[in-house]
Design brief:
The complex is a heterodimer. Chain A is an all-beta fold. Chain A has strands spanning about 5, 10-15, 20-25, 30-40, 45-50, 55-60, 65-75, 75-80, 90-100, 105-110, 115. Classes of the chains: A mainly beta, B mainly beta.
């Protein structure tokens, strides 16, 4: 199997506070994890690529000081939205890359976290 | 830059019928991977099917098959014997070989009519 979990699934916070979202690969080790953002009725937009033990690589236009990513182990990556504002409200999805038998990597996705900033 | 285009924002199909979802992509690479993901109302992304560009044979997974035309940079998904549970958003995705960076199309919302 290849199961990826996210916690929390839903969070509401006040403007100006920080929120941490966890992404875990439950039954495999993932050297690489990804964070996506999805607005309603839109596609997934890659925010950053997270490699275990190294700094994340952010996509153009994504503020690295606002979206802090930590990949502390082969099964856990966290995304912290700092000083959240209403425009940060969105659906955040993580994925973890698993090396398949064919030696290619497949991304398996978490169930997502809905963030609402009041 | 690689781009993925899904030209059908919405599609509908009668239960038990067959439907084809279109996807085209732009790349200068010769080796890459293509995917179809399903996102039901729960919003959990589910891998439907994967195709390696170096393979000429079209991938199949039970009722799901693809028509991969490398020269035309086309990667369509055929769903046979459609079921109510197939109703979802379907995203086509491109991934470079040896690079986990994945790019998604805008998605196609599939409705299955009973």
């Amino acid at each position: 199997g290849a199961v990826v979990s996210q916690h929390p699934s839903w969070v509401i916070c006040k403007s100006g506070t920080s929120v941490k979202i966890e992404c875990r690969s439950l039954d495999f080790q993932a050297t690489t994890m990804f964070w996506y953002r999805q607005f309603p009725k839109q596609s997934l937009m890659l925010m950053a690529t997270s490699n275990e033990g190294s700094k994340a690589t952010y996509e153009q236009g994504v503020e690295k000081d606002k979206f802090l990513i930590n990949h502390a182990s082969l099964t856990l990556s966290t995304l912290t939205v700092t000083s959240a504002h209403p425009e940060d409200s969105s659906f955040y999805i993580c994925s973890a890359s698993k090396r398949e038998r064919s030696s290619t990597d497949t991304q398996y996705f978490g169930p997502g976290t809905r963030l609402t900033v009041l | 830059a690689q781009t993925v285009t899904q030209s059908q924002p919405e599609m509908s199909v009668q239960e038990a019928e067959t439907v084809t979802l279109s996807c085209t992509y732009d790349t200068s690479e010769s080796d890459y991977y293509l995917f179809w993901y399903k996102q039901p109302p729960s919003r959990q992304m589910i891998l439907v099917i994967r195709q390696e560009a170096y393979k000429q044979q079209n991938a199949t997974e039970n009722r799901f098959s693809v028509n991969f035309q490398k020269a035309a940079k086309s990667f369509s998904l055929k769903i046979s014997d459609s079921q109510l549970g197939d109703a979802a958003m379907y995203f086509c995705a491109y991934q470079k070989y040896n690079n986990n960076d994945m790019r998604f199309g805008a998605g196609t919302r599939l409705t299955v009519k009973p």
